[in-house]
Amino acid sequence: MANGQGIANNNSLGGDDQTHIALGKALLEEIRDFAAVKWPEEACGLLIAAIDTPNRIDRVVFARNVAEDPLTTFEIDPQTLIEAHRTARQKREQVVGCFHSHPNGKALPSPTDRARADENGFLWLIIATEHNRAGDSGLYRIIHQSTADAAEQSELRYFRRCQIIDR
Ligand SMILES: [Zn+2]
Question: Keyword set for this entry (predicted)?
């Protein structure tokens, strides 16, 4: 595939800022192909890593999008979600992130994505799709930051861009 955006040929997991995520090129291509085939619907699934190496994606779980309107949003099949968590526990793995596609061709997280990103530190991989082709890919980590003023109990929430390292 021609698109290699954001992929560096670097085997080191370097950086202690949690923004360097190892994701093999073959695995990324699998996700991109899956997303492309699902166009014009949003494709979705989960990113799985070993407990000890949460910044290295070992495998993905492809899910059914059970959203009422899969053209504009996604909802991972709850059954798949439960099974993925159970299997991960048994294999000393964890669900470290999710992926979904944006059939509008934009790989940036939407305000809806941010509103739904309730798990602090969760990885969000977004694949832009257009006419059964995968375009840009963007990987982000959602950061929840409590504000200094505890009385307000408000929380700042933003996506931090991550770099995909071909493992
Ligand atoms: Zn989205």
Answer: Hydrolase, Metal-binding, Metalloprotease, Protease, Zinc
DSSP bridge pairs for 56: 22
Measured in Å, residue 112 CA sits from the centre of ligand 1 at 7
CA of 82 to the centre of ligand 1 (A): 21
Per the CB < 8 A criterion, the answer to whether 102 and 127 are in contact is: yes
CATH number of the domain enclosing 161:
3.40.140.10
Eight-state DSSP code of residue 76 = B
Domain membership flag for residue 3: no
What confidence tens digit (pLDDT) does each residue in 69-108 have? 999 999 999 999 999 999 999 999 999 999 999 999 899 9
- Quote the ligand 1 centre to 105 CA distance (angstroms): 11
What's the 141 CA to ligand 1 centre distance in angstroms? 13
Residue 5 forms part of a structural domain: no
Ligand 1 center to 110 CA (angstroms): 5
Q: For the chain, what is the domain count?
A: 1
